[in-house]
Amino acid sequence: MSESIQTLANPLATGTDYEALAARFRPIFARIAEGAEQRERERILPAEAIGWLKQAGFGAVRVPVEYGGAGASLPQLIQLWIELATADSNLVQALRGHFAFVEDKLNAPPSAHREVWLRRFVAGELVGNGWTEVGAVKIGDVITKVAPSEDGSHWLLNGTKYYSTGSIFADWIDVYAQRSDTGGAVIAAVSTHQDGVQQSDDWDGFGQRTTGSGTSVFQNARVEQEEVIDFAERFRYQTALYQLNLLAVLAGIGKAIERDVAAQVGKRTRIYSHGNAPRVSEDAQILQVVGHISAIAYAVEATVVRSAQPAQAAYEARFGQDAEVERQANIAAEIESAQAQVIVSELVLRAATELFNALGASAASEKIALDRHWRNARTVSSHNPLVYKARIIGDWVTNGTEPPYVWQIGNTPDAEKRAA
Hints:
Pathway: Sulfur metabolism; dibenzothiophene degradation. The chain is α+β, with helices and mostly antiparallel strands. It has 3 domains: 12-126, Acyl-CoA dehydrogenase/oxidase, N-terminal domain (Butyryl-Coa Dehydrogenase, subunit A, domain 1), CATH 1.10.540; 132-232, Butyryl-CoA Dehydrogenase, subunit A, domain 2 (Beta Barrel); 238-399, Butyryl-CoA Dehydrogenase, subunit A, domain 3. The chain has helices at residues 18-34, 36-42, 47-55, 74-87, 89-94, 96-107, 112-122, 238-267, 284-307, 309-317, 323-357, 371-381, 386-399, 415-419, and strands at residues 127-130, 132-133, 145-148, 154-162, 172-179, 185-191, 197-200, 215-224, 228-230. Strands 1, 2, 3, 4, 5, 6, 7, 8 and 9 form a 9-stranded mixed sheet that branches. Strand 3 (145-148) and strand 4 form a beta hairpin. Helix 4 packs antiparallel against helix 9 (284-307), helix 10 runs antiparallel to helix 11 and helix 11 packs antiparallel against helix 12 (371-381). The relative contact order is 0.12.
């Protein structure tokens, strides 16, 4: 990359030719889809598939063209995620932390440090996620600490994180921590290529089992001075973006259900004596089920792509001169992603169940792993509880209450009292 890149003002990623962009990755998505069932049955982590995406520059599609990326808008990124999630929903969630970190750097003021990260993304380096504390942690407490080294040349990170999605595949981990000296909340970007970082594939959920969402342990892990950043500087629509990732996962699952039900119905030879046709593929009732699933997949995809537009507006407003416009854009990003979450989760779970109404008991065979669609959709839908999202939407629509942009999970403050 030319050194003159630093003289550029601040090019933004506002969109590109989507079909040309997607054409770069569709052959890879097809290869990924070929091994999806086996990875699901045998719990094989998709390290090879992640490697294909890295080499093809998938992690840099949001980076502006001027820096060597594809310059995709957020709605275009979500479309790509949906296509990838149709092939294997685990991979999109595994890359969730990476794209959030990329978005944070895109929202940061232009600097030499930001350009270092943009070059890393273009080179194929990936970032994982490490935010959730484990154990008996009160809500709001942060046990993971980052402290200055004795000579003050770097920082040392100590702690344990769970739900560290994608970190087992990553070169870096985006860690939420607390400074030992000031108590301030920070983000520490720590390299995984050191002995002080240990990772385990111990996520025990019944769905999304190959996302690498296990435990990360940090023991005096080295963090460079410039990689400890005040959390208050984090981009505002981060929760909306995290949710958009899960929405894309759900939309991809919906399209995979549509694909699989059509394929299974099309080749099914066994019929019921009380059916409506000599072939299942000609049975009007079965075709109605398939059609309904297809309509759900269509509506879900359209909703998810539409819900990404406010986030793109928030990104562009970040560099405008009107604080109120930016605030309203951030509110819209949060509310619309929540609105989509509430309905999309219900629809995809319905499609995952209706799938079996079009097929016989043989569809329950583990060999074809059709149950993975419901299990994966149910697991994804359990993130960011729907009931709270619906309440937040209602409070905004009724009372104009601004939604929360960051939230935490942990033990209730009186947990010790209750235990006693």
